[in-house]
Specification:
By secondary structure, the protein is mostly helical. It has helices spanning 9-24, 30-47, 57-69, 74-93, 121-137, 141-156, 160-164, 194-206, 226-240, 250-261, 266-273, 278-298, 308-320; strands at residues 171-172, 177-181, 187-191.
Length: 321
């Protein structure tokens, strides 16, 4: 059960009711609720046993200091605080009074916004070429399955959990699409290209099982698990020789960033990703796209304004220093 020492049972009941209501209205998905529960445990483990209405702003300061002393990062601390503020706001709407707490005055550490990571076209080719090399040497269910998944993720922008939840019967071949249930239980359609079908068909031809899942375990007795996917991904990532740090979710970022850089409309990419609004899409990808455009501009001879002779002279003088 979720209750633990340091968090009173009454708090658990109040928070759990908020979670269940948010689950019914699709405001939160089960995975998000699991993270919220973890944040709640972390908060009360650091400030001690208190009822929700007894909380004050000093408790949040105490939490921040305790987490920093334990080596927690600012992003983790900010996430826990955001969870508590979400719960408290829900409880206030239910008429529960917090006489010693001002939500607007709760302090939190500064979190530096990180730039969305994605693969360049060259890096995509480098990664897939590494997988293709092993397939060319000896095609197996294992390596063809991974290639199929990698191409599927890069071509559709699907989350790894969404891809692994697909059944073979879900694929609409005449319309080249597949319906999925995405984050927050929102339905969405993924559109498939012919090269994706090539790898799907090649993978399915190697399988001799009755497993309905599109991506099955190697022995065909179960659905392929994310933990097993991670092991395969890390192996091919290491073999690819790509120096930048990236994870399998980077394939989704690559899909979005590459389409935006090539001129796709923000609303179109938003729909493809399953974001509820364009603001979310912009938040993740605008900076990466603009940076790529600046790099392209700097290296485009069309925008040169320095005479070539000056560039050569300056380069020569620099070598003499």
């Amino acid at each position: 059960m979720f209750y633990l020492q340091g968090m009173r049972e009454n708090n658990f009941k109040m928070a759990e009711k908020c979670f269940q209501e948010a689950l019914i209205t699709d405001e939160l998905c089960p995975a998000s609720i699991k993270k919220y529960r973890s944040s709640l445990r972390t908060f009360f483990a650091n400030i001690g046993p208190k009822n929700f209405p007894e909380l004050n702003n000093g408790d949040f300061d105490q939490f921040i200091m305790a987490m920093k002393q334990n080596g927690a990062g600012n992003a983790r601390i900010a996430n826990v605080i955001a969870t508590l503020k979400w719960i408290i706001a829900r409880l206030e709407r239910k008429g529960i009074v917090f006489p010693h707490l001002d939500l607007l005055s709760i302090r939190k550490p500064k979190v530096m916004k990180s730039e969305t990571n994605y693969l360049t076209e060259r890096e995509v080719e480098q990664f897939l070429s590494g997988v293709a090399y092993h397939i060319a040497k000896r095609p197996t269910v294992k390596n063809v399955r991974f290639m199929t998944l990698a191409v599927f993720l890069l071509q559709t922008g699907a989350r790894i959990g969404e891809a692994l939840s697909i059944d073979i019967a879900d694929i609409d071949r005449p319309n080249k699409e597949v319906r999925i249930i995405g984050k927050g239980s929102k339905p969405r359609t993924l559109f498939l290209r012919q090269e994706t079908f090539y790898w799907i068909d090649r993978y399915l031809a190697l399988r001799h099982d009755g497993q309905p899942a599109l991506f099955a375990s190697q022995d065909g007795t179960a659905r392929w698990k994310q933990t097993d996917v991670g092991r395969s991904f890390r192996r091919y990532k290491e073999k690819s020789g790509i120096k930048k740090d990236f994870v399998i979710h980077t394939f989704r970022h690559t899909f979005a960033t590459q389409y935006l850089m090539k001129g796709a409309g923000i609303n179109v990419v938003q729909t493809a990703l399953g974001h509820s609004d364009a603001v979310t899409t912009l938040k993740y990808y605008a900076a990466a796209v603009e940076k790529a455009k600046v790099r392209e501009m700097i290296n485009d001879r069309h925008f040169d304004f320095m005479p070539q002779s000056a560039s050569i002279r300056l380069g020569y003088e620099a070598r003499q220093c």
